[in-house]
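ugh ok fine here u go
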Amino acid sequence: MLTPRHSRFLSDINIIPLVDVVLVLLVIFMVTAPMLHRGIDLTLPTSTANTIKPEERLIITIEADQTMFFGKDPVNMLDLQTRLKNAKQRNPDVAVYLRSDQTIPYGQVVRVMDTVKSAGIERLGMVTDPGKTRIDEERLAVQ
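structure:
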């Protein structure tokens, strides 16, 4: 028989106080988080001179039937090369965005990219459709 002197210790960890602290911290962060994104209220001065130049962006489009456009004008590869070199001479920081139908062969897209690079233009971007994310698909599946 065990006497009070020889009683066993309870070896389980009590996590209830830990949960209480975590919930209090969660509430504090939920209340303070919207305040962190708020900036300082200022009345900015006005200026008549525009110091920021708009970036020149050229768009090359390849349609599903492999018709190529420079802006809204249809072009072939030779004409594209000439127009890109002229654009590079006008503005050395020109940016080119390539839009291509997903059914276009990879080789055709690479040839256009090579033409852009050979014209000396380093800023080349690919335009894509954002499409659905996995989270959006999961939301639709739940509904």
